[in-house]
């Protein structure tokens, strides 16, 4: 009897790598031998598979079961091999009909009673099945059939396979929508912060990094958490990329599946691996979970310095590349950085209502924690003052999210039209569409603030965004002046 072959996959980084599971039953006492670089979780599957088969009413084959995970040089990890190994044993021992299994990639973890549980990375498995022209079979959580583009099979227990694939529920693309989570935060709730709202509109329109500095209670966190409400919804390509990363990380998919841009706000005690990715198995970090969305770092100066400096390369490249002994892993990391910080350890430096108790040396040490290289990659900085008590009590209202989002969408639409008409002007021609007065002021700003090439380019980018908000093809002097006013102090 020739070995039975089953389509499977192993999660590696942000993708599922195809694996062929070959099952052979031959003479000898019963036992399951696993070969092909399985990790501890895969080796444990031998006990889960044996008990699950017994509890589901199947017979244990009389003979030695050898399971080969090919290609043999790739490390196999995770619990997604339980289902394909069990199905391979059932097919090799002629206990279920064999028709149709070659058309599906199998992924699922078995419980001891024979139930099939969902596994981390369901969207990644679906994408791997798509690339092989297969459907996906497993306990589907939602979104897999859409990602696969083909009918998939939802299975809840090994007992459902007694009649072969006929016992599984067919899920078609479009029928597996993930439950929608609505975003209810609105800038109308933020009182007396119109200058900060203006800076946030600029940041959203141009995808700029931003830092807010102010005393406790000034509304920095409220402002940051509402930023996704003025960002355009995810495109289909961005949505699928976000679902893939969140699925691999085991994160809920409801928000990104609904088109809401990710918003990640890790605590300042986060490790470097938690921020950029790592661990065993290798998982995406917060910068990748914030891909196509916002990474908000509250109490920025409280983060460990080496954790903050690890953000420099992702901010420039839009991706994270981790190199380990068994190879390299790459995750997307095109995120918008928003930070919030107190001006000093006590938080009241410059606050007219409270006296600062910090020494000049303590203030300098506190503000230096962020570091010049990271600050050089932040485009806008604004001081957020405490709101006026009278306006808060009276419940005054300013710009709401709908009005701000309309400005952002109009600016992005104009920028797309401008680039399509005139072409992108970056690098040596960074000020090619500036007026003569705008160029002169940009040069003056670069000299007076002692900016390097990156700093000058970032001021120019902010000025270009401000001009796009006014739907101006050329960048004027007042655009450069406003951009320079938002330049972070060093």
Determine the CATH topology of the largest domain: Rossmann fold
Could you report the average pLDDT, rounded to the nearest whole number? 90
Structure summary, number of beta strands: 19
Which secondary-structure class do the elements indicate?
A: alpha/beta
Number of domains: 3
Q: Quaternary arrangement of the chains shown?
A: single chain
The major beta sheet can be summarized as:
5 strands, parallel
Low-confidence stretches: none
Which word captures the global form?
A: elongated
- Sheet-strand content, in percent, reads 15-25%
**Rounded Rg:** 28 Å
Describe the secondary-structure layout.
Elements: E1 4-12, E2 15-26, E3 31-35, H1 40-55, E4 64-70, H2 82-92, E5 104-106, E6 109-110, E7 116-117, H3 122-131, E8 135-138, H4 144-148, E9 152-154, E10 169-171, H5 194-206, E11 210-213, H6 220-225, H7 236-249, H8 254-257, E12 263-264, H9 272-276, E13 277-278, E14 283-284, H10 286-289, E15 294-297, H11 305-309, H12 312-317, E16 319-324, E17 327-332, E18 336-341, H13 360-367, H14 372-375, E19 380-383, H15 389-394, H16 401-422, H17 436-448, H18 453-469, H19 477-485
Parallel strand pairs: 3-4, 5-8, 8-9, 11-18, 11-19, 12-15, 15-18
Antiparallel strand pairs: 1-2, 2-4, 6-7, 9-10, 13-14, 16-17
Helix pairs in contact: 1-2, 3-7, 5-16, 5-18, 17-18, 17-19, 18-19
